[in-house]
């Protein structure tokens, strides 16, 4: 029991790292998702193809393999990434690919009559997007983006495998020192992930109902 | 000189030729009503006039500006043409007033206070000044369409296009929209109306055009058009709708 209590501050620090990584990844993924998703919704098919290819590629590879590639592979090209940076970059690319689909889907779901009415007023393409389409699309993006954050928090536990001292890694280190605390420590970790993600996914569902 | 002139306009979507050599002209202050069965190309004509659709051949000239001249910018053309859609297409995230002032602010470059004053006067004109702050979802269909008319008028266009402006409305509220359109006609606004409202066409039109299968079958002033149509196709259409 006493060695379990000793582990708690380290777990708390690990949870802090998990949060920091998830938030940094989320910010980057939202930015990436907006740029790529918006471009994909307006580019002609030929110019969209490379983006489509990149998104399909990112969606078709395991996140852990991407993390290993960025952390172990890139240094051989002279690009040295710290554990945290590799973890954040991998999560941002992975979630950004999903985010770009959220953004593109929301934009193309706005009825074409909206764009036509704005065009008939003489607004230019960019102004139509900025003033008419995106404000309406934002409402539709919000619930899936909130759900995406829960996915990032969950997936960030893979960063433990490239030695990021997140919540899971903090737990592993303590259990290695004292295998006897494995049950209470891992139970704590399970509950901590759930305690973060459950309110987030409830919020996403509520938003969906409210904005529908 | 006509305010609007179409000459030998052709348009195909894939294999489907929807406009086959359309010519018509509208004098300033006139109201041109286009009637005909669905799929006859009526709405496409309106969409070609403000370049929402590019024509394949022929010419369209509005107030001296050629629609087919690539040197004429979309914005210069569209400032001269107001359009009212069957489905209203109001911007749901903006109030009625913001819908009306968007064009004046962002396209005409009016300062916010001038745009607001213009917007309020136009909402008053369509009988909706008290609903300036309402979102489209809080307005009835007839009110939404009247806001849409005010929005189009806010660009101070030379020509107003109405694309079946009352077709999406319940019969008992088409009247409030038609009343606004009649008022515009009385004020000598140049209008092209695609419509199924034969009463409106008979009362307001300077000229009625009957279209079928992408061609103008018959064109005449309403008195003549409705009482003595010349073409068999027109007669059979009128016998069904009147």
Brief account:
The complex is a heterodimer of chains A (212) and B (242). By secondary structure, chain A is mainly alpha-helical.
3D structure, described in words:
Chain A has 212 residues and is mainly alpha-helical. Chain A has one domain: MetI-like (MetI-like fold), CATH 1.10.3720. Chain A is built from 8 helices and no strands. The mean pLDDT of chain A is 93. Helices cover 37% and strands 25% of the residues of chain B. Chain B contains 9 helices and 10 strands. Chain B has helices spanning 42-49, 74-78, 96-106, 112-125, 141-153, 171-186, 198-204, 222-227, 232-241; strands at 4-13, 16-26, 31-35, 57-62, 65-66, 81-84, 159-163, 190-194, 207-212, 215-220. In chain B, the strands form 2 sheets. Chain B has a 6-stranded mixed β-sheet, sandwiched between helices. In chain B, strands 2-1-4-5 form a 4-stranded antiparallel β-sheet, covered by helices on one side. In chain B, helix 3 runs parallel beside helix 5, helix 4 (112-125) packs across helix 5 and helix 5 (141-153) packs parallel to helix 6. Chain B starts with a strand and ends with a helix. The A-B interface holds A 111, 113-114, 116-124, 127, 131-132, 135-136, 139 and B 50, 52, 74-75, 78-79, 81-83, 85, 87, 89-93, 102-103, 106-107, 148, 151-152, 155.
CATH architecture of chain A: Orthogonal Bundle
Largest interface summary: A-B, 18 and 24 residues
Number of helices of chain B: 9
How many domains of chain A? The number is: 1
Helix-strand layout with pairing:
The complex is a heterodimer of chains A (212) and B (242).
Chain A: H1 2-42, H2 45-59, H3 63-73, H4 83-108, H5 112-120, H6 125-155, H7 167-177, H8 182-211
Chain B: E1 4-13, E2 16-26, E3 31-35, H1 42-49, E4 57-62, E5 65-66, H2 74-78, E6 81-84, H3 96-106, H4 112-125, H5 141-153, E7 159-163, H6 171-186, E8 190-194, H7 198-204, E9 207-212, E10 215-220, H8 222-227, H9 232-241
Parallel strand pairs in B: 3-8, 3-9, 6-7, 7-8
Antiparallel strand pairs in B: 1-2, 1-4, 4-5, 9-10
Helix pairs in contact in B: 3-4, 3-5, 4-5, 5-6
